[in-house]
Amino acid sequence: MPVELRRADPGMGSLTDPAGAVQEDVGTSGPWCTVVWNDPVNLMSYVVFVLRRHFGYSRLVAEQLMMQVHEEGRAIVSRGSRERVETDVQAMHSFGLHATLERAGED
Amino acid sequence: MAHAFRRRPDGSLACRLDGEEKAIIAQVAQETADLIRADLGIDADPGFLQRAAESDDPLRRLEAEFAGRDAREPADSAVKRLFPAASEDPTLAGEFRRLGQQDLADGKLADLAQVMAIIDSAGPSHSEIVLDDAQAIALLRALNDVRIVLADRLDLQRDGDFDTVRMLQQIGERVEEASEPEGDQVGSDIVIAVYELLSWLQESLLRALD
Lengths: 107, 210
Fold this sequence. Notes:
The complex is a heterodimer. Chain A is an alpha+beta fold. In chain A, 36% of the residues lie in helices and 17% in strands. Chain A has a domain at 32-103: CATH 3.30.1390.10. Chain A is globular and about 30 Å long. The longest helix of chain B is centred in the middle third of the chain and has 33 residues, at 90-122. A 3-stranded antiparallel sheet of chain B has the order 1-2-3. The interface between A and B is medium-sized, with 23 and 38 residues. Chain A: Pfam families: ClpS. Chain A: Belongs to the ClpS family. Chain A: Involved in the modulation of the specificity of the ClpAP-mediated ATP-dependent protein degradation.
């Protein structure tokens, strides 16, 4: 399954493939992560658009992340250094998505 | 009545809006910008701090330095949604605000100003607005920010709340057949109608961009 992922890091658990057959994850491992939270305003199509545009995720990955936000209330959309994640959170805020940064492994 | 956005052969994005729709969009964009400025204490004149920083008066220079460094915590519930805390940890959230809030506000205000300029250049009557991709992104972001403010005023907290608001409105309309609508209800009817228009416009633009 050729899924285009920026900062892909083999060996991490996968959102796109929970069974772990494809060892790829959204973003790379890192001590910090960007969390996007559900809200009643943002259109599903808009969230997918933002994730594709900012992170360069494929439609499939962006749609899965959007559904995770919608159904579970939150999703980790990127991992990396604190600086990297701060940039991502700022970008999510610029699009009006509710995002926070967390130390990886908090949830 | 607005027509959906479509991609034209030259690559630009176009949509027809009537005069009333354009007036509404310009007005809510202006009100959102005013709300952000008022709540975060941002001077409408961006040259003000620059001039203060270059002043001969050392007190004014000091004032400008502090004003530039200060990132005021939003007080208004809608502005809180536009500028959310970036962490549950208050120290981390405060630091993030101090470093990034001004840039974030500048970006949002620039998007809103660009939307107002696009509407103005299209003229007051029924006409087509034509956007390049950069303008389309600015419009998407601005529409979203305005919708966040309207949603706050409608007290939308969870998925499905807007459907509930619409349902209550329809029940209210049936009840009102016997009595005159109250002032508050007329106000929220307008907010509901504007929210629906902007949601529809945003969805239509997303489809055209896809």
